């Protein structure tokens, strides 16, 4: 796993895959990082159901070194996770959420360096065709597309906030906090450069798509109605003569 500048400078809990939201039954690897050069560190967590416990004490199992594996996640595994030494030193804290919802937002679990490029993914548990995704920051819709991802180039402190996504007119993910570490810039950065935003409204292309799909059905319905009307008139007229 590649270490971020944030982890190179600090005692750091790393999450693999690098995100804070997971579906039920996902696998998670939690590691205290090779940069510590210390075998006395353990992964701990605090949850609503289980309180504060180290790895292998009723949850997860210890792998090589200071790595802890959760083979199958469940909603009760949601909580805060960190690394702790035998002397009581603690690393950064990572919030991890396990959800039964059919949609998650994949965003970095750790703070990202100012100036880096960040991609957020809106991931449905079951994918289907012709889906449109809406992305929100602090409650405001910032982009709609069919790819299910949004890229922020040269990320800055102004990009920090609570992000979530939804399938247009359907399911919505939980929120994930995107943290930006201004102390370790990867590239000189003044302002962020997000992808050109598409308005979060009914797009022209989508309107054309619905018209192309719906028009034949509308026309056929009208024609059937006219035929049915003419047939009824044909039956009524001879009887009235």
From TrEMBL:
Its protein name is Ig-like domain-containing protein
What organism does this protein naturally occur in? Astatotilapia calliptera (Eastern happy)
Task: Output the GO biological process annotations, alphabetical, semicolon-separated.
Answer: cell surface receptor signaling pathway; immune response
Q: Where are the transmembrane segments?
A: 207-228
Pfam families found in the cross-reference section: Ig_3 (PF13927)
Ig-like domain: residues covered: 102-175
Any GO molecular function:
transmembrane signaling receptor activity
UniProt keywords, alphabetically: Disulfide bond, Membrane, Signal, Transmembrane, Transmembrane helix
Q: Does the keyword Transferase apply?
A: no
Keyword Chaperone recorded: no
Q: Give the SMART domains listed for this entry.
A: IG, IGc2
Q: Which GO terms describe its cellular component?
A: external side of plasma membrane
């Amino acid at each position: 796993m590649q270490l971020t500048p944030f982890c190179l400078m600090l005692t750091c809990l790393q999450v693999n895959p690098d995100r804070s939201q997971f579906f039920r039954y996902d696998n998670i690897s939690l590691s205290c990082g090779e940069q510590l050069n210390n075998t006395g560190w353990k992964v701990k967590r605090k949850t609503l159901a289980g309180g504060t416990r180290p790895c292998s004490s009723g949850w997860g199992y210890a792998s090589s070194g200071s790595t802890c594996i959760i083979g199958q996640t469940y909603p009760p595994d949601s909580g805060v996770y960190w690394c702790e030494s035998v002397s009581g030193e603690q690393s950064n804290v990572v919030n991890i959420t396990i959800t039964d919802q059919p949609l998650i937002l994949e965003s970095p679990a750790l703070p990202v360096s100012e100036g880096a490029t960040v991609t957020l993914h809106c991931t449905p548990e079951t994918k289907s065709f012709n889906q449109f995704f809406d992305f929100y920051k602090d409650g405001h819709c910032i982009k709609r597309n069919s790819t299910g991802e949004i890229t922020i180039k040269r990320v800055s402190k102004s990009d920090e906030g609570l992000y979530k996504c939804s399938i247009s007119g359907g399911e919505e993910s939980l929120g994930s906090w995107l943290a930006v570490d201004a102390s370790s810039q990867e590239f000189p950065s003044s302002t962020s450069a997000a992808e050109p935003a598409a308005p979060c409204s009914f797009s022209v292309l989508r309107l054309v798509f619905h018209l192309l799909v719906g028009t034949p059905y509308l026309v056929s319905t009208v024609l059937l109605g006219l035929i049915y009307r003419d047939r009824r008139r044909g039956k009524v007229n001879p009887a009235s003569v």
